[in-house]
Task: structure prediction
Amino acid sequence: GAAAKAYHFNGVSNSMFNSSVTLPLSTGNANRTMCFWGRADQAIAGVRIGVAYGNSSINQASQIGFNSMDTNAPSTLGCAYGAPCSPAGYIHQNTWHHVCMVVNALNAQLYLNGGLLDTNGPSAGTTVSAATWNTQAGPIEVGSFSGNYRFPGDLDDIRIYNRALSTAEIQALVQQPNKKIYVTNSAYNGNLAGISGADAKCNSGDANKPGGAGNFKAMLTDSGSNTLRRACTTSYCGGTTTGISEGIDWVLRPNTTYLRALDGLPVFTANYNGIFDFSTNNFTNAIHTTSFQVWTGINFGVGGEWTIDGGPGQCGSSGTNIGWMSSAGPYNGVYGNSSAAAQTTTPAGVLYNGFETAACTVARRLYCVEQ
Result:
């Protein structure tokens, strides 16, 4: 999903609708695949449709979306309208997820972020239950169905195929095109005007920003009770049921390769949790060929890799509990080394370059990641 290009729906009155009943879409129980990228931003109960088409009668429409966003176990959903559904796959509010449903004459298969789900959660080789499919040639709707089940959040890259895609083809949809990462030419003290201010600096005409590229965000973690950005809450996002859902507005996409904007060389490929595992590998190339100190606020070396440094190391302003708002002497911020390809638990490297955090009075650069 791309926030600058996706469509936003308010969960109350917004949707998109094509009333044509002659669209060249699969009907009956003919093969089909329906997919979307979605990011829900409200804890709303019940079924919330990403995309659907057909008639609002039992078994006469195909639909996929999210379910039970107001509970502790929100999930994906894919089925025929009015038929028993088997929601599966833990999702998280304010996080992009890729959902696909593949239908053939035998069953329906539901995929989350490229993985096949069963009714009990993420696992391989199991299908979700499907009723007798008899989809009719009806209208197509995005963000709702029959004026109901309205989606709360962003939808992007909606696709419908008149064939059953293979697992490899669905995984290719998740593995989006390569993205760029760069180090700012300008350096800043710890008062970045918060996370939003750092993002603005990545998009404000910095001399190192690659021409023709899209929107960029700063690879920083926030601090305090008003956490606006983080990668993980456990080391390497290793929670048994959480994984990628530990992130908030995180800047890296799962299974995406990031290229050095300086010369186009590959730097790393993010894993399924939208991070890089330094415990097993180093970057292919450093983010920059020159050594610069770069603000990150990311923890390494004391357990909880890729979590928010609890120093605190985000130049927090006194009394606000918000990071990157102070250049005052008493405050500190974590920084990394732009020419490093490794991150050790010493710690030293790309994201965290020493046990002690550094004074926020000193100007340092930013890592900016294409979205």
Helices lie at 167-174, 194-202. The chain is about 5% helix and 30% strand.
